[in-house]
Amino acid sequence: MADEQSQASGEFEREPVPETALLGPSKFWxxxxxxxxxxxxxxxxxxxxxxxxxxxxxxxxxxxxxxxAVLTWRYLVTPxxxxxRLTLYYQLERIAGGSLVKFYNVVxxxxxxxxxxxxxxxxxxxxxxxFGIFYEVPAATFGFGAPSFTGLVILVGIVMAVVAAAGYEMxxxxxxIAAPWMIAIFAACGIVSxxxxxxxxxxxxxxxxxxxxxxxxxxxxxxxxxxxxxxIVVFAWLCNGAMHFGMADLSIFRFAREKSSGWAPAIxxxxxxxxxxIAAALLLAAQIKLSQxxxxxxxxLAWGALGWTGIICVVIAGWTTANPTIYRAGLAFQGVxxxxxxxxxxxxxxxxxxxxGAFPNLSAQLLGFVGTYGTVLGPMGAVIFVDYHLLxxxxxxxxxxxxxxxxxxxxxxxxxxxxxxxxxYLIFWQGLFAAYAVIPAWLACGGIYLLLSKLTQQRE
Amino acid sequence: xxxxxxxxxxxxxxATIVPSLLFFAGVIxxxxxxxxxxxxxxxxxxxTPLWMGRSAKKIPGEVIP
Lengths: 460, 65
Known about the structure:
Chain A is an all-alpha fold. Helices cover 73% and strands 0% of the residues of chain A.
C-alpha cells in the first residue's frame, strides 16, 4: 500500500526510482540555482567581515571551498545515488534499522528548528525596519533582544508556522518564483554597496581599502579576530556537509539520468555561497562606512542598499528558507509520534523555531551552527559510503539491518554517536571551529562502522 | 500569453539589476535605483507566476536549508 502511494505521488520513497522517472541534467541545474540563495546568505556574508576575513582570502577561499563542495557532490554522492536510487532515509533504514533512522530524523528536525529560528530572526529584522524596531544582539547567548523585537519575532514565527502547517506546495512554488529575482537582488546589493563606498574604479576595487577599513573598524570595537584562508575554505566546503558528506542529497540525485547532473550544485554554490555571500558582506562594509554601525542586521543592511526592495528580499529569503525547514522538522517529529497530526507537529516545530528565533545571538552564531550541523549529521554519510563501497570487499554483508530485521544497528549507533560526541565536546568545550570537526568525525564514523561490522557480523 | 509574461519577467529582472550597474557607472542616482528595483520586483511577482512553476516538475527530495 505504502509502495503504491509512493509510486502514485512520484516520490518513490521506499523503492528505487524507475528508469521512466529519471530526469535530465537541466532539472538539477535549475533546482540548485535557486536552492542555495536563501535567507541564511544575508547572515553568513556579513559574519565573514565581522570575523575579520580579508577580502583576498574571502575571494580565493570561497572559490576553493565551493569547488571542493561541488567535487564532493559529484564524486561522493552522485555515484551512490545513481547506483541505489533510494532516498537517504530508506537507505539508512536498510543499513541502520528503522528506529535508529527515526532518532536520526528527530536530531535532524531539532537542528532544522534552530536553522528556521535564525531565519525567523532574519525576517523579523526586516519587518521591524519600517516600524523602527531593530535587531540587536545581546551579550548572552540565550538573552532576548528588545521586548518589541521579541514580540515581532513571535508574530513572524506564528505566521511562518501556520503557513508551514498549511502545506509545503505553495511555499515551494513561491521559492521557485523568487529564486532568480533574489539572486539579482543580491548582486544589486553588492554593486550598490561598492558605489556607497566609492569603490567604482579598478584601482579602488583592487586596493580594497573599503574592506580593510571596515575590518579595522570592527576590530577596534570588538577586539582583534582572525578568520583565515583555510578556515574560509573549510567552511565553504563543509557548510552543506549534511547534504554532501552526510548524503542527504542522495534523495535528489537518485533521479539523475546522467552522471553530469552531479555538477549541478556548482550553480548554487557560486551564486549563493560565492556571489551572494560576498555581496552580503559588502552590505556590512558599506553600512560601516556610511554610519559607523557594525551590527549585522540583515534588514537594515538591505534597506540601506535597495530600500523597500531590500526589505522584501530579506523577508522572502527568510520565509522561503524557514517555511520548508519548519515543515520538514514537523515531519521528523511526526515520525516519532505517528498518531499526532502533521499540522500539530509542524506547529510544535514552528514554536521551537520561534523560541530559538527570539534569541538573536543564535543567528549571530550561524557560522558555528552550520559547522555543528555538518558535524552531527555528516558522519551518517560515512556509514552509507562504507556500506556501499567497502563492506563487501571485507567479506561483510551490506544493508545488514535489512537482512536481520534489526530496529537499531548497534554498529551504526556507536559509529555515529562516538565521533559526534567527541566533535561536540571539542566544539563547545575546547573552542574548535565547528566546520573543522566535520571530516574527522566523518572518517572516524566510517572507520568505526567498518570495525564494528567486522566484529558484530562475525559473531552472528 | 506565456511569451508576453516571460518578456515582462525578463524586463522586470533587468529592472532590478541594470539600475545598480548604471548607478555604478554614475549615470543615475541611488533613489532611482531603489524605485526602479521596486517596480521591477512588483512586475516580477505579477508576471512570473503566469508561466513559471505551472508545468515545472519539482525534483522530489528532502528539503534543503
